[in-house]
Amino acid sequence: MPTHLQDRTTLHNGVKMPWFGIGVFKVEEGPELVQAIKAAIKHGYRSIDTAAAYGNEASVGQAIREASQETGIAREDLFITSKVWNDDLGYEETLAAYEASLEKLGLDYLDLYLIHWPVEGKFNEAWRALEKLYKDSRIKAIGVSNFQIHHLEDLMKTAEIKPMLNQVEYHPRLTQKELHAFCKTQGIQMGAWSPLMQGQLLDNPTLQEIAANYNKSVAQVILRWDLQNEVVTIPKSTKEHRIIENADVFDFELTQADMARIDGLNENLRVGPDPDNFDF
Fold this sequence. Notes:
alpha/beta, 10 strands, globular
């Protein structure tokens, strides 16, 4: 179980990925995003999660360069993730999309590259492209996002390399127990997006009561629950005080009873699209 912000989980290919990072979903290009990422790096974050679809890879790259100059933290010490968008899911298209992301980010390689959504009939070819990039040592690790069990099974029928990570919507209202168990048996690390359910859980009475017992915020309790469930977590924030607060989750441990109470909030409720029923 991680005890420090820079603790890492070992993916099935031996690559070490931070348990905790910052996500930048829906944050526009520009100074606010650059400052947020620089603040995160300054306060000990080493993992940054973006995607082609977020339209902000250039600002992420700028922040990495400026942070490196100001703090001396090398590129090799950071773990950068991006994702290929649905329009680019095809063998040649995915190879080109990877180059485009690298160019926007101003990087020579990514630590992790994910297929963003399981578009039926398209993700197998995209995965073949990710495997090639991986074999050519252009990416440290490859994975998927929003894949259900049947998507993973479909992928693995033709894949030479298993995904190293599956990043999915994951929070106390959507605990994804079956998917999590399946990923564990397959050696696929699970990651959480929208861990705070876009703020919808912050006034939940059960979570407020648990948080009060530990002198922590509801957000900190949820993020701690993620980590104790061995789920990589990337909460989004652009505010420095919140970036600091989100990462202040390594000095306490939830009891098994409290973990179970939080599990009990599950309603299989999504704030994002359903991976079995999306049209983009």
